[in-house]
Design a protein that fits this description.
Largest sheet: 5 strands, parallel
Mean pLDDT: 93
Order of helices and strands: HEHEEHEHEHHEHEHEHEHHH
CATH topology of the largest domain: Rossmann fold
CATH class of the largest domain: Alpha Beta
Strand content: 5-15%
Strand order of the largest sheet: 2-1-3-4-5
Distance between the termini: 29 Å
CATH architecture of the largest domain: 3-Layer(aba) Sandwich
Helix content: 40-55%
Number of helices: 12
Radius of gyration: 19 Å
Shape: globular
Number of strands: 9
Structural class: alpha/beta
């Protein structure tokens, strides 16, 4: 089975598994720490708790003091990320409460934290962390911060599949670069999409909050660049960008239900990657084929 087909299987498997996640509230003012997809999972919790929770990457905390008594949740699928482990050790020594949210209960991260939460999710066998582990981490972060997540994953996924099929014809996979724009809770979704584009296709995705994009990055646009807007009744921005001769795609994701919006958007990104891979004939995740880049990345992340 090729790597993209395994993710297709993982996409289906997660829907029946996510409803089994049931984690107790830790606090409504947690600090989440993570990198990559794990950072996005914490960022979603930051937005959906109206900033009662905070989210940082480990590098944000390199020179920071940890707050005694405050609970820090270190999010990592593998539990092997060097920077996360280092920050968790410092936080524990400082007297802060530390929690590892990880699929690897025997990892170094789990060992240095006071408590471990293992998202109990049956996953398809994939060469990567997979789709399900990211969504499970997002659900776990929300539950740990006291948000009740309804078991509507099947409905949300079905809605996302419909939206992705409807917008597919308006999307072009850029050979070089795509700007991904989203406000509020859709900014983490744009960031997640940028990671997926890089891993699936080797495409550079630049995620920005929509208004902040117009303050400066907009001046670096080239005619060959593409723009995807994850919108909430913001279609007017598409026509304004198209006046510049830019190929702009708009995906309407507004919902009065914030949880529905977030999870439908996540599933939409996942399904769009699979649909685009099928359209353009990709069978393998491109980042797995870049062995020299992958080695450098792993050396930096895991301290090889």
């Amino acid at each position: 089975m090729n790597s993209i087909e395994s993710l297709r299987l993982d996409s289906d498997t997660q829907i029946s598994e996510l409803g089994k996640l049931d984690n107790e509230k830790i606090s409504d003012s947690l600090i989440f720490v993570g990198s990559g997809d794990s950072y996005v999972a914490g960022l979603i919790a930051e937005y959906l708790t109206n900033y009662k929770c905070k989210c940082y990457s480990p590098s944000d905390l390199f020179n920071s003091d940890f707050i005694k008594g405050q609970t820090y949740c270190f999010v990592s699928v593998t539990g092997r990320t060097k920077a996360n482990i280092s920050m968790a050790e410092r936080a524990t020594r400082s007297g802060s409460k530390t929690v590892a949210i990880t699929f690897n209960e025997n990892s170094k991260l789990a060992q240095v934290c006071d408590k471990t939460i293992h998202p109990r999710l049956k996953r398809a066998n994939t060469p990567t962390a997979g789709f399900g582990s990211f969504v499970a981490n997002a659900v776990t972060c929300l539950q740990a911060s006291g948000i009740i997540v309804p078991k509507k994953f099947k409905i949300w996924h079905q809605n996302a599949v419909k939206i992705s099929q409807n917008v597919l014809d308006s999307l072009v996979l850029p050979a070089d670069k795509v700007f991904l724009l989203g406000n509020n809770a859709l900014y983490p979704i744009a960031l997640y999409a940028s990671f997926q584009l890089a891993e699936f296709f080797g495409t550079v995705g630049m995620a920005h909050k929509l208004e902040e994009f117009c303050h400066s990055p907009i001046f670096g646009l080239k005619k060959s660049d593409k723009v995807w807007i994850f919108g909430q009744n913001e279609k007017r921005y598409r026509s304004r960008l198209e006046r510049l001769g830019l190929f702009t795609s708009y995906i309407e994701l507004y919902s009065s239900d914030a949880l529905a919006q977030v999870f439908q958007s996540i599933f939409l990104v996942q399904n769009l990657m699979l649909l685009l891979a099928a359209r353009y004939g990709y069978t393998e995740l491109q980042y797995l084929l870049k062995e020299d880049v992958l080695k450098v990345s792993s050396d930096i992340i895991y301290g090889g």
